[in-house]
User: Fold this.
Amino acid sequence: MNKGELVDKIAEKANVTKREAEAMLNALTESIMEAVADGEKVTLVGFGTFEARQRQEREGRNPKTGEAMTIPASTVPAFSAGKLFKETVAG
Assistant:
């Protein structure tokens, strides 16, 4: 499912126009990204949790040359599925 199909589904389920559904989806995703970028944890009970996680510096290899290199530490976004989401997917 891509963003357009998701907007269509939201519009149908919420009984709103596609334009309103897209505005709601954009507001949701932007709000989650801003909160996680600010170091906050966003929890949607039953759905899951979005948070920033720290990756330590590590050794890697250049796939082209095979040369060893250091991959710097970084902060990455992470998502953990909630219980209801896991149960729904499992069937």
Q: What stands out?
A: The helical segments are 3-14, 18-37, 83-90. The chain has a mean pLDDT of 95. The first strand starts at residue 42 and ends at 44. Residues 1-39 form one domain.
